[in-house]
Amino acid sequence: MASTAPRQRRKDARPQELLDAALALIVEKGFAATRSEEVAARAGVAKGTLYRYYPSKDELFKAMVRENLSMHIAESAAQAAQYQGPIAGLLQQMMQAWWAKVGHGNAGVVCKIMMIEARNFPELAKFYVDEVINPSKRLIGGLIERGIASGEFRAVPIEATVHLLIAPMLHMLLHEHSFGEHDICHETMTAEELLDAQMALLLHGLLADSSRT
Amino acid sequence: MASTAPRQRRKDARPQELLDAALALIVEKGFAATRSEEVAARAGVAKGTLYRYYPSKDELFKAMVRENLSMHIAESAAQAAQYQGPIAGLLQQMMQAWWAKVGHGNAGVVCKIMMIEARNFPELAKFYVDEVINPSKRLIGGLIERGIASGEFRAVPIEATVHLLIAPMLHMLLHEHSFGEHDICHETMTAEELLDAQMALLLHGLLADSSRT
Amino acid sequence: MASTAPRQRRKDARPQELLDAALALIVEKGFAATRSEEVAARAGVAKGTLYRYYPSKDELFKAMVRENLSMHIAESAAQAAQYQGPIAGLLQQMMQAWWAKVGHGNAGVVCKIMMIEARNFPELAKFYVDEVINPSKRLIGGLIERGIASGEFRAVPIEATVHLLIAPMLHMLLHEHSFGEHDICHETMTAEELLDAQMALLLHGLLADSSRT
Amino acid sequence: MASTAPRQRRKDARPQELLDAALALIVEKGFAATRSEEVAARAGVAKGTLYRYYPSKDELFKAMVRENLSMHIAESAAQAAQYQGPIAGLLQQMMQAWWAKVGHGNAGVVCKIMMIEARNFPELAKFYVDEVINPSKRLIGGLIERGIASGEFRAVPIEATVHLLIAPMLHMLLHEHSFGEHDICHETMTAEELLDAQMALLLHGLLADSSRT
DNA sequence: AATGAATGAGAGTTCATTCAT
DNA sequence: CATGAATGAACTCTCATTCAT
């Protein structure tokens, strides 16, 4: 009968609130410059309470990364299976979907944080590479292989092409987070414009003349 | 006659030695996790000696970044003027030259460090954007404009295309530094292969069929 | 019911305990030679605890001075209003009361500390001058003026006479604190004897002969 | 023949130059806040040179105090013998002479420094008490005794009266050095005015009525 | 003898972590 | 459980002192 009391509900939500607070502050200032007490304060609890949920600052960080990535991975896996139709359009859909999900939100900034902290948290980096980077590459690489096999694409090198597809989006993400604020660097182009340009360029090439060597 | 004494000779080399030590350690572990004393030790001097040359850890960091970027800027400016011939080839040359210079060496890792520390050192970030990022973009953007004006290229959007050219190289740099070691992620592709694929893709597009929409 | 827990009780007393420890040590060795950790240790807490209450050694010092002076000022103001009767007796009462309160206790040593550290803490010195020195001078100066106006005293110069009244007491204070210990200088005279002699001398003069010029 | 060369003359003056530099800086900022290097710089030599003349900062300090006091002592002893005539006038002369010599100049500030540092340099304090304070007291005390013996003075307590004579001058010295600068406390009275008032007060007393008990 | 580069013990301050309440 | 007072290891920076030149 007794439905979960507010106190209980509050407690159940604690871990996620702490993780969110940690993410926000670590994105803002970096892992080292983020004080445990700040994280707790932002989550609305006292310093000591944090340690009832995570045994150390490092573990809090790892949990935060894992949690955010896990959600991302689960969603992505579900979506990846759905794509149908010609590969070129599929690629475009996927890129747009990726940006919509990652470009604005937690998963995106976690990518940046992983890049920054990879060397300080090797196990975490391995997890990230195994669970996020490599699966993504395999997914896109598989599409390109299908495109080549079907004759839709030229016989481009898989790995390099995957990299060329991924890098611009990721780089935009990092760049915006690093330089986008405080009047340092106003990027006038939107992500959508970049994506369109990328697809157009990939499909049609840069040259005006369409003759091939 | 009086040849420079060893003491003096060492003194002259100190700033650079300290800067190099700082760079190596900061790349390795990040700015916050790098202790002043470690920097000094790696440069072969005692803790206090560092402070004879740089008044604080922050100033040491800034000097290290500025010094490495300055060299890079000077060299790049000198090279940029020399390019001749058809734009497509020119672009390729430039990209290859950039990688040769930046891909392996200090300038490259400084790019990564700047990305990471931009929010903690806003003036430095501004300097980096003004002196490195924007000039680079202007250089490449100018080439593309020339290519379009001469009819060599299609009328692609400049900013996005510049981004698409730059991002893969930079991303590779960051990725290698973050995940390339400790068995985390063996990138099987070399930068040269990536560059070749990038140029081929840009010039010819991805599609097997050459008909244009 | 919930009586204040020991932890809480200690917390409430901490600031005063730290201030007392700081006073004792600074009197003993001077501000510069007193280490934060010593202050903490004398107050029975660890180094870090001090910084929960005062954000720096300087602020601890200022708080200590202000706190001790504030108490002194409040008490003095209350007493000053009470004096009644002939001025000569009044002066004597005041001097005796001042010594009883300041001569042995915190307020007195704070006078010494202020003298020593005035140049290193100008704002504090200004506070001390405004809140302690000048009010004291005004109080005594006012009494002397009243004595002159009523015909009780000769027309002596106010400022100089105030100084002549104050200086011996203060000097005794300083002297005792600086040289009174470690067998350096045994002052055989007590403050009470000094005060009596001072009043006798002031009232009757030094000369045996009573003829005036 | 070869009269002392400039180099030699320079070297002979070094100790005194270093002592003077030390005095000036220690008066300005206190012993602890005065860096050895500053002393050397002010004396026009390099840091290391200071250590060729004084083996440590402490020893430099002691030498500085001893040197300044020695000069003072020698001069004072010479002058003390010369006084002749009625004691009252003699006392006045001595006080004026003391102020003229000590009030402006090194000996005066050394008094302040000794007060401040007495507890950190006990041997030095002992030296100061034995060689400066006690002789001065004996000198003045002797005069007062002579005045009493000759019937010129009333039978005042010697020690207290000596203190009452000395304290106002010394206090003025200390006060000016501590609060006289930076708009903290403008003393409007000059030392001469104070001295005059002191002598008048001592000789004639404060009371308008000349009747004696 | 003079120099000033180098040293390293030591001081102030921070903050992750613990634990009495 | 939650709290936040207390802790002390760790870190930055200073400066008296040394010693190769």
Automatic annotation (TrEMBL), chains A, B, C, D:
The keyword Ion transport does not apply. Keywords: DNA-binding, Transcription, Transcription regulation. Residues 12-72 form the HTH tetR-type domain. Residues 35-54 bind DNA. The keyword Membrane does not apply. Pfam families: TetR_C_11, TetR_N. This is TetR/AcrR family transcriptional regulator. It comes from Pelomonas candidula.
